Structures are given as structure tokens and as C-alpha cells.
Amino acid sequence: MNWSSSKSFITRALPFAATFVVAVFVTSLFVDLNGPRMRGFHGKRHQEMMRLRMENQELRKENFRLQEQLDIQQMGHRDKHPGDEIRLQELNELPPVPVVPRAKR
């Protein structure tokens, strides 16, 4: 490349670059140039997953309790084990699972 072609390139590129820098500066006065914040989205998704896990755990406990009741009904009184009623009472006496608090903004 010779001197005249690089000089013409600089004379064309310099005003464009200067205009671009000024435009970004002016834009930064009015708009936050950082990327979008996804904290709210991820927090909501995490909260939803925790809620679903707790609900799944409650359903497993209920399923176990119902299966135990069904087993006891099918066995009848002749094949009962002495601790069956106690196990069912213990399951019914479990405290309810606490609700996950909502995140505050």
C-alpha cells in the first residue's frame, strides 16, 4: 500500500470512528450500556424448582402413606404386624412442609 491510499483511508475512517465514539458517549448518558440483567428470571426459575421439589416430596410422602393404608387393608387383621399402626400414626403426625418464601426485589 502506498502513502496516498493509506492517507485517503485514514481521512475516510477517522470521521466515521470519531462519530461512532461520540454517539456511544451520548448514548451512555441516557441508557445503561451494560448487558441485560437476568437475575430476576433465574431467581424465579430457581424458586419454581424449589417449589416443585417440595411438592414432589409431599406427594411421595402421601403416596407412601396411601400405599401403607392399602397394604394394611389388603392384609386384614390376621397378618398385621404390631408396629403398622404406629408407623401410620407417625407419618400422619409429621409437620407440614414449610412454604418457600418469595424473593423480595
Helical fraction: over 70%
Secondary structure class reads: mainly alpha
Oligomer: single chain
How many runs of DSSP E, i.e. beta strands?
0
Total count of domains: 2
Task: Report the portion of residues in β strands.
Answer: under 5%
Query: Kindly state the mean pLDDT as a whole number?
Result: 79
**Spans where pLDDT lies below 50 across 5 or more residues:** none
Strand/helix succession = HHH
C-alpha geometry = rod-shaped
End-to-end separation: 59 Å
Number of helices: 3
Gyration radius over CA: 34 Å
Main sheet properties = none
Please sum up the structure shown.
This protein is an all-alpha fold and 105 residues long. It has three helices and no strands. The mean pLDDT is 79.
